[in-house]
C-alpha cells in the first residue's frame, strides 16, 4: 500500500496503510520529527501541520486525507538561513521553555496570520490559539511573539508594495 | 528530614557502589587535546550535606572531569544536571563563562550523560543554581587560575600582575597576551583541583546576570531539536506495552496468538510484563490491542473515600523530622484571643508534561544504551542495571533536553520497559507513552488534607499555630510568621494512588492552607490581610517581596470593582522568597483571574530573562491546580486520563495582566527559581475570590465546575 504525499514541496511515495495517522508518516517514515506527539486525540496541538494552509491535528488525520494537498511541517517553514517571521518572533521573544509545543504553536500562528487581513486583537489570537497547549505556561510571550510576527509580516508586505 | 531527601527517598535511590571512570585518554580522544580540569570524585561540592544514604562511596582514586578547554578554543562543561525547560543549560554556561573569562558562545554544555558527566543525584529541588552553579563556578575559577599560572611560567613573570579576559591571559605591563588555545595547544594536560578559589562578586558579573537568550533557541523554533521521543537509530523498531486493567492487577491469562501472527511483530512476555515490538507504530498498537489479557485487580480506595482514608491510615510523625514544635500550643489562645480552626484539601494532580515519558533503547555486545527524558539519568541507569542484573558501567543513559518534567520524570519506567522490549527484539526500540499511559502509569502530586488551628490577640499578634498535614507532604509546612507557640506536623498516610514529587512539592498545599488561613484570621480580626502579615513578620527578604508586590499591585490604594476582589499571599521555600497579589472577577458563577503581580527574590539573579519566563510560566501553571486540575479515580482506575477530561491551563486562562517583579539581591547567593514561583498563586486567588464574593474556598481545585452554589 502506498500513499502519495507532498510534504514541504517534495513528492513522497510512502509505503504506509492509508489509515495510518499523518503524524506517524511524517515522524517515522519521513523522519520529520519536528511535528510532535502530545496526546493523540487532537486536544493539545503539538502535532499541528498545515494542509493547504489550514492547521490540522496530524495525530487524528489519516495519511490518505492528506493526499493531493500541500503539507507544511515546521521543517518546511522559512528558507534555509532565513526563518519565517513567526519563527523569528518566537525566537526573539523567547516564547518557549521546554520548546515541545513550539512547532505546533508556530504552525497554528502561521495559518492564522496568513489569513488575517487586519490587525488581530488579543481576543482573536487567544480564540484561534486555544487548541494549542503550552504546559510551561509561556502563553504571555507567545501572544507577544504573534503580535510581533504580525507586525513583521505586515512591514514585509508593505515593503513589497 | 529535608524535602530533597524525602523526595529522593520516594524514588529509592540505590547508593552507588562503583563510580564511572572513563579513562582520561578517552576524553581527549572525544574532545581533542587541551586541558582537562578534574576534581577528586566525591570531593567536589558535595551533592548532599552528609546524609550517608545518598552519597556516593568514597573513591579516592577516581576523578570527575568537569571542564575541558580545547586547543580549538572550545570549552566543554560536563554536568549531570539536565535541561527540561528551566533554562539550566543557559544559566550554567553563563556562570562558567563568567568565571573562566571566555565568550559565552565558546562554551558547550554536555549534560546528563552517565558515561561522560560526573555523578549527579538529579535535577530537582531547585538545586541546580545554588549547588551546580557554585560547583561549576569554582571549577572554572580554578581553571582560570591554572591558565594564569601557565602564562606566568611561560613569560617568567609573577602571576599576580596577570589578567584573564575574553579567552586569553594578558600582561598589562609588557602588553603581551596569549589565548587559552595557545596555552593548551598540542597538549593533553590534566589538572586536578583541590583548593576552593575565590569567586567573582555578582556586582562585577558581566555574562552571568545578563538576560542572554536561551541556548539552542533556533533548534526549538525550527523543529530541529531532538527530544527523547525523536531519537532514531538504524534498524529501530517501535514498542507498545499492554497495560493492566487497574493498579496492582495481576495477569491471569494472556492470549498472544493473534499478535504473533502479525508480520514483523515480536511479543514480549515476562511475568506480568507484556509488550510488543513492530516495524512501525501503528502495527505495534494493533498488535498490543490484539493481545487478549485478563487481569485480576484487588478492590481499591476510590476518590470519594480519599480524605477519610488518608486520615484513618495516618502514621505518627517522626519526632524532629516531620515536626516543628515551639513553645506550647496548649497554653496559648485563652481569654480574649481569637481562635480559628479550618481544614483545607488538595487533590491529586498530574504533571502532564507535553512530551510523555519516552525512551530509545539499544543493546550492543552486552552493553545497554538508553536515551530517555528524565530528571535523574543516574538513577535511571541504576534502575536499568538493577532490572537487568548488570554492572552500572555497562549501562549508559543519555538525556536529550526534554519536553518538560515538573518533578514528574524522576523515574525510569519507560526506559526499563523499552530496554526489555529491545532486548527481546534484538534491535533498537523506541517507546513513547501515550497521553493515557502518562495520565495513568506515571505518578501524581500527592493529595492531602491540612488542618490548621490558630489563635491571635485582638490586636493581630499571632499567639499559636497548629498545622497537621495528612499525606500531601512536609515541604513548606513551617510558618515564616513570628508565632511563639507552634505545633506543625506531617502525617504520612497510605496513598491509594502512586505519588511522587511535583514542582514545589507540598509547598503548594501548605502555602494554600497557611496563607488562606492567615487571610481568614485577618478577616476575623478586621485587619487588612497585608498589614496582618507584616505585623507578624520579621524576615527582611519576605517583607521585601510583600512590599514589592503590593506596591506594584496598588494594594490598599485602589478599591476593587463590583464583583471583583483582591488577594495576597506569600512565603519562603527553597530559599526563594515569593509574594503574589491577584485580582479576580466572580461573575455568573465563573472565576476569572484578571491580574497577577508576583515579586520574587532568589538572591543574585543569573539570567533575568529566563527567570521572568519561569515566574510567569509558574503563575499560569499554578492556576491549573488552583482552579480546575484534578485526577479522578475509582477502584484502581483513573477516570479522566485524557486532556479532554483533565483540564490544563490554556490561552483563555492566561490572566490579561501578569506582572513579574524581580528583587535582585546581589548581596545574596543565587538560588533556584524553578519551583517556588508556583506556590503563591493558589492562596492569592483563593483570598481574592473571598474578597470578591464572600465565599471561602478551602479545597484545590477551587472551581472545577465554576463557583459552588451558595446556600
Quick overview of this protein structure:
With 161 residues, chain A is of the alpha+beta class. Chain A has five helices and five strands. Chain B is of the alpha+beta class and 711 residues long.
Features:
heterodimer; A: 161 residues; alpha+beta; Ubiquitin-like (UB roll); DNA polymerase, domain 1; five-stranded mixed beta sheet; B: 711 residues; Aldehyde Oxidoreductase, domain 4; Aldehyde Oxidoreductase, domain 3; 4 domains; seven-stranded mixed beta sheet; six-stranded mixed beta sheet; 17 helices; globular
Give an account of the 3D structure.
The complex is a heterodimer of chains A (161) and B (711). With 161 residues, chain A is α+β, with helices and mostly antiparallel strands. Chain A folds into 2 domains: 3-76, Ubiquitin-like (UB roll); 85-160, [2Fe-2S]-binding domain (DNA polymerase, domain 1), CATH 1.10.150. Chain A has helices at 22-29, 85-93, 102-115, 122-129, 139-160; strands at 3-7, 10-14, 48-51, 54-57, 70-72. Chain A has a 5-stranded mixed sheet, sandwiched between helices. Chain B is of the alpha+beta class and 711 residues long. In chain B, the strands form 7 sheets. In chain B, strands 11-12-9-19-16-17-18 form a 7-stranded mixed sheet, with helices on both faces.
The CATH homologous superfamily of the largest domain in chain B: Aldehyde oxidase/xanthine dehydrogenase, molybdopterin binding domain
Q: Structural class per helix/strand content of chain A? A: alpha+beta
Shape, principal axes of CA atoms of chain A: globular
**Amino-to-carboxy terminus distance of chain B:** 43 Å
Name of the CATH superfamily of the largest domain in chain A: [2Fe-2S]-binding domain
Largest sheet of chain B: 7 strands, mixed
- Roughly how much helix do the residues of chain B carry, as a percent range? 25-40%
What does the largest sheet of chain A look like? 5 strands, mixed
Mean pLDDT, all residues of chain A: 94
Radius of gyration of chain B: 27 Å
- Uncertain spans of chain A, ≥5 residues at pLDDT below 50? none
Strand content of chain B: 15-25%
Strand content of chain A: 5-15%
How many β-strand stretches of chain B?
A: 29
> What's the architecture of the largest domain in chain A in CATH terms?
Orthogonal Bundle
Following the backbone from N to C, one meets helices and strands of chain A in this order, namely EEHEEEHHHH
Helicity range of chain A: 25-40%
Q: At CATH's second level, what is the architecture of the largest domain in chain B?
A: 2-Layer Sandwich
Strand order of the largest sheet of chain B: 11-12-9-19-16-17-18
Amino acid at each position: 500500500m502506498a500513499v502519495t504525499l507532498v510534504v514541504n514541496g517534495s513528492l513522497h511515495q510512502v509505503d504506509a496503510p492509508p489509515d495510518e495517522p499523518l503524524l506517524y508518516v511524517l515522524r517515522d517514515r519521513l523522519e520529520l520529527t519536528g511535528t510532535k506527539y502530545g496526546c493523540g486525540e487532537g486536544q493539545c496541538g503539538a502535532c499541528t501541520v498545515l494542509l493547504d494552509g489550514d492547521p490540522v491535528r496530524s495525530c487524528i488525520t489519516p495519511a490518505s486525507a492528506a493526499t493531493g494537498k500541500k503539507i507544511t511541517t515546521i521543517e518546511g517553514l522559512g528558507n534555509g538561513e532565513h526563518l519565517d517571521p513567526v519563527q523569528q518572533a518566537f525566537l526573539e521573544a523567547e516564547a518557549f521553555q521546554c520548546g515541545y509545543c513550539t512547532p505546533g504553536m508556530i504552525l497554528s500562528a502561521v495559518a492564522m496570520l496568513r489569513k488575517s487581513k487586519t490587525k488581530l486583537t488579543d481576543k482573536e489570537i487567544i480564540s484561534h490559539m486555544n487548541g494549542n497547549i503550552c504546559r510551561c505556561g509561556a502563553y504571555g510571550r507567545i501572544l507577544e511573539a504573534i503580535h510581533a510576527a504580525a507586525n513583521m509580516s505586515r512591514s514585509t508586505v508593505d515593503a513589497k508594495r | 528530614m529535608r524535602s530533597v531527601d524525602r523526595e529522593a527517598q520516594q524514588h529509592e535511590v540505590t547508593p552507588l557502589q562503583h563510580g564511572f571512570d572513563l579513562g582520561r585518554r578517552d576524553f581527549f580522544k572525544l574532545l581533542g587535546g587541551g586541558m582537562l580540569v578534574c576534581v577528586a570524585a566525591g570531593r567536589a561540592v558535595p551533592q548532599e550535606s552528609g546524609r550517608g544514604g545518598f552519597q556516593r562511596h568514597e573513591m579516592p582514586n577516581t576523578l570527575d572531569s568537569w571542564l575541558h578547554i580545547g586547543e580549538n578554543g572550545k570549552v566543554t562543561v560536563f554536568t549531570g544536571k539536565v535541561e527540561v525547560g528551566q533554562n539550566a543549560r543557559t544559566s550554567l554556561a553563563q556562570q562558567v563563562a563568567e568565571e573562566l573569562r571566555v565568550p559565552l558562545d565558546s562554551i558547550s554544555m554536555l549534560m546528563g550523560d552517565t558515561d561522560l558527566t560526573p555523578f549527579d543525584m538529579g535535577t530537582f529541588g531547585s538545586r541546580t543554581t545554588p549547588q551546580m552553579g557554585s560547583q561549576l563556578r569554582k571549577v572554572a575559577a580554578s581553571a582560570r587560575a591554572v591558565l594564569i599560572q601557565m602564562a606566568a611560567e611561560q613569560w617568567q613573570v609573577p602571576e599576580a600582575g596577570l589578567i584573564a579576559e575574553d579567552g586569553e591571559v594578558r600582561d598589562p605591563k609588557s602588553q603581551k597576551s596569549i589565548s587559552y588555545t595557545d596555552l593548551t595547544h598540542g597538549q593533553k594536560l590534566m589538572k586536578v583541583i583541590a583548593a576552593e578559589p575565590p569567586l567573582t562578586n555578582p556586582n562585577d558579573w558581566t555574562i552571568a546576570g545578563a538576560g542572554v537568550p536561551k541556548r539552542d533557541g533556533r533548534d526549538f523554533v525550527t523543529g530541529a531539536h531532538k527530544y527523547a521521543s525523536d531519537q532514531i537509530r538504524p534498524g529501530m523498531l517501535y514498542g507498545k506495552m499492554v497495560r493492566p486493567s487497574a493498579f496492582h492487577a495481576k495477569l491471569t491469562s494472556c492470549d498472544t496468538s493473534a499478535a504473533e501472527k502479525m508480520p514483523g511483530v515480536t511479543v514480549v512476555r515476562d511475568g506480568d510484563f507484556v509488550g510488543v515490538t513492530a516495524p512501525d507504530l501503528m502495527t505495534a498498537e494493533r498488535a498490543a490491542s490484539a493481545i487478549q489479557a485478563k487481569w485480576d485487580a484487588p478492590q481499591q480506595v476510590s476518590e470519594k473515600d480519599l480524605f477519610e482514608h488518608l486520615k484513618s491510615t495516618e502514621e505518627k510523625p517522626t519526632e524532629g523530622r516531620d515536626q516543628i514544635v515551639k513553645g506550647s500550643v496548649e497554653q496559648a489562645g485563652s481569654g480574649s484571643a481569637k481562635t480559628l480552626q479550618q481544614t483545607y484539601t488538595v487533590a491529586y494532580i498530574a504533571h502532564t508534561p507535553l512530551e510523555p515519558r519516552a525512551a530509545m533503547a539499544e543493546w550492543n555486545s552486552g552493553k545497554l544504551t538508553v536515551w530517555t527524558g528524565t530528571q535523574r539519568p543516574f538513577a535511571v541507569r541504576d534502575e536499568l542495571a538493577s532490572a537487568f542484573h548488570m554492572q552500572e558501567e555497562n549501562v549508559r543513559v543519555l538525556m536529550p533536553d526534554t519536553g518538560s518534567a515538573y518533578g514528574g520524570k524522576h523515574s525510569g519506567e519507560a526506559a526499563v520497559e523499552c530496554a526489555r522490549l529491545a532486548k527481546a527484539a534484538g534491535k533498537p526500540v523506541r517507546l513513547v507513552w501515550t497521553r493515557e499511559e502518562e495520565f495513568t502509569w506515571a505518578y501524581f502530586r500527592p493529595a492531602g488534607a491540612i488542618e490548621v488551628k490558630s489563635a491571635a490577640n485582638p490586636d493581630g499578634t499571632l499567639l499559636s499555630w497548629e498545622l497537621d498535614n495528612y499525606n500531601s507532604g512536609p515541604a513548606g509546612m513551617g510558618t515564616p510568621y513570628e508565632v511563639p507557640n507552634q505545633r506543625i506536623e506531617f502525617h504520612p498516610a497510605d496513598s491509594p494512588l502512586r505519588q511522587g514529587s511535583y514542582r514545589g512539592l507540598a509547598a503548594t498545599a501548605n502555602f494554600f492552607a497557611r496563607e488562606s488561613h492567615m487571610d481568614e484570621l485577618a478577616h476575623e480580626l478586621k485587619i487588612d490581610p497585608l498589614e496582618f502579615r507584616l505585623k507578624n513578620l520579621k524576615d527582611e527578604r519576605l517583607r521585601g517581596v510583600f512590599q514589592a508586590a503590593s506596591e506594584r499591585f496598588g494594594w490598599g490604594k485602589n478599591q476593587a470593582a463590583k464583583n471583583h476582589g483582591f488577594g495576597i499571599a506569600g512565603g519562603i521555600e527553597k530559599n526563594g522568597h515569593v509574594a503574589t497579589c491577584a485580582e479576580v472577577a466572580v461573575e455568573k458563577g465563573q472565576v476569572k483571574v484578571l491580574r497577577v503581580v508576583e515579586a520574587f527574590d532568589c538572591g543574585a539573579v543569573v539570567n533575568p530573562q529566563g527567570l521572568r519566563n519561569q515566574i510567569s510560566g509558574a503563575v499560569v501553571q499554578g492556576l491549573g491546580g488552583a482552579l480546575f486540575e484534578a485526577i479522578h479515580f475509582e477502584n484502581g482506575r483513573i477516570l479522566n486520563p485524557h486532556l479532554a477530561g483533565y483540564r490544563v491551563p490554556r490561552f483563555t486562562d492566561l490572566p490579561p495582566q501578569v506582572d513579574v517583579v524581580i528583587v535582585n539581591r546581589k548581596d545574596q547567593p543565587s538560588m533556584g527559581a524553578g519551583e517556588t514561583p508556583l506556590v503563591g498563586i493558589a492562596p492569592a486567588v483563593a483570598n481574592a475570590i473571598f474578597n470578591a464574593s464572600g465565599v471561602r474556598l478551602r479545597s484545590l481545585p477551587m472551581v472545577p465546575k465554576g463557583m459552588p452554589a451558595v446556600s
